[in-house]
Design a protein that fits this description.
Pfam families: ABC_tran, OB_MalK
Distance between the termini: 37 Å
CATH class of the largest domain: Alpha Beta
Keywords: ATP-binding, Cell membrane, Membrane, Nucleotide-binding, Translocase, Transport
Family: Belongs to the ABC transporter superfamily.
Helix content: 10-25%
Number of helices: 10
Domain ABC transporter: 4-235
Bound molecules: adenosine-5'-triphosphate
Largest sheet: 6 strands, mixed
CATH superfamily of the largest domain: P-loop containing nucleotide triphosphate hydrolases
Strand order of the largest sheet: 6-7-8-3-9-10
Main location: membrane
């Protein structure tokens, strides 16, 4: 097992495109680290660097204390599981799992024992004589993992290994891979564009965008305290609502004004986030997660509320997802897109609001929603960094 350190790593392709810029990332020995980000953010490039499949143009890659920039892939003792499982169709499960060890000249008895143990761990013992064509997608996936596991590698690399599976199997395998990783304790780096995979599987998650690491944190910390607008919008489903607001100092504290609505940050909120005081007078972006709203029956007595018209309701059984239009008549509310981009002052903001499945609400109704000031994220409109 090993830790893996990206020390000021950069990758520039021959055409001059910088796929990764100045990446500092310490993957700890034994941890399950997920690299997540939208298509093209550089996550596969980073993973391929660890495997030795991608030339590094800047910085140092240190694997298990050794500078590995120029180490040949076969000398790194690292196993990679790809999107396509790349099993040998003419070999059975046993032979597929043992293949890597056999070509390395492992002794027959030791090989058989190792394959047996690995198959047991992966719950494949009953299928050892089957060919890949006789297996389900999930079983094939496990064989592919078995081929990597059997080698006792220093680290496991996985590049979107579940993307070919249906939703149900993907859910199962998420749990399965995370469980196996805990069992074996092998340092694992897992690449995905799916934030649900990232959140459910990773001990820590590195969020990347345009080749730049945005935040490295536990799933919980990413959700609770996103470092910037991009991470805030990327992590969490349905995604966070964003609204442009003006911060105004008042007697009661700091007021965030969004068109006709006001959210007050009082003394205890300001003590927790002193940066809000420093931003008084600024135009900022507020972020509120869809699940943080509470409908209120008596709007007059409630504070920190928005009122709008329910446009439509998606009934998901245990929850409802209501789309609520809070656009003011004067158009002073600005729509901020899911990606955190300010789309201009054109359309009325529509909030995504997650409500309890038992809530009675219909399209066309007016609804008032309260939100605790502690659950309102505030971002600098220029730098897009969280104000804390
Ligand atoms: P995806 O989820 O779509 O696989 P990714 O985050 O894994 O995306 P990478 O495959 O790491 O992205 O690619 C990062 C960036 O580098 C992309 O913008 C891609 O277009 C670019 N890139 C990849 N290979 C080359 C190349 N040979 N020459 C120039 N640019 C490249």
């Amino acid at each position: 097992m090993a830790d893996i350190i990206f020390d000021g790593i950069g990758k520039r392709y021959p055409d001059g495109f910088a796929a990764i810029a100045n990446l500092d990332l310490h993957i700890r020995d034994g941890e399950f680290l997920v690299l997540v980000g939208p298509s093209g953010c550089g996550k596969s490039t980073a993973l391929r660097m660890i495997a030795g499949l991608e030339e590094i143009t800047d910085g140092r890659l240190i694997i298990d204390g050794v500078i590995a920039n120029n180490l040949a892939p076969r000398d790194r003792d690292i196993a990679m599981v790809f999107q396509s499982y790349a099993l040998y169709p003419h070999l059975n499960v046993e032979e597929n799992i043992g293949f890597g060890l056999r070509v390395r000249g492992a002794e027959k008895k030791a090989l058989a024992e190792k394959v047996r143990q690995t198959a047991e761990l992966l719950e494949l013992s009953e299928h050892l004589k089957r060919k890949p064509g006789q297996l389900s997608g999930g079983q094939r996936q496990r064989v592919a993992m078995g081929r990597a596991l059997v080698r006792d590698p220093k680290a496991f690399l996985m590049d979107e290994p579940l993307s070919n599976l249906d939703a149900r199997l993907r859910g199962q395998m998420r749990t399965e891979i995370a469980r196996l990783q805990k069992l074996t304790g092998v340092t694992t780096v897992y690449v995905t564009h799916d934030q649900v995979e990232a959140m459910t599987m990773g001990d820590r998650v590195a969020v990347m965008r345009h080749g730049v690491l945005q935040q490295l944190d536990t799933p919980r910390a990413l959700y609770d305290t996103p470092a910037n607008l991009f991470v805030a919008g990327f992590i969490g489903a349905p995604s966070m609502n964003f609204m442009a607001a003006d911060l105004v100092k008042t007697e009661g504290g700091i007021d965030a004004r969004v068109g006709p609505f006001e959210f007050l940050f009082e003394a205890d909120d300001l003590a927790a986030r002193p940066g809000l005081n420093r931003s008084a007078g600024d135009r900022v972006i507020l972020g509120i997660r869809p699940e943080m709203f509470t409908p209120v029956d008596n709007p007059d007595s409630a504070v920190n509320t928005v009122t709008g018209e329910v446009i439509f309701v998606e009934d998901l059984g245990s929850t409802l997802l209501a789309h609520v239009d809070i656009g003011s008549a004067d158009g002073s509310l600005r729509e901020i897109g899911d990606d955190g981009e300010d789309d201009g002052a054109l359309s009325a903001p529509r909030l995504r609001v997650v409500l309890d499945g038992q809530t009675r609400v219909k399209a066309g109704e007016t609804i008032t929603l309260a939100v605790d000031a502690g659950h309102i994220h505030v971002f600098n409109a220029q730098t897009e960094g969280a104000i804390r």
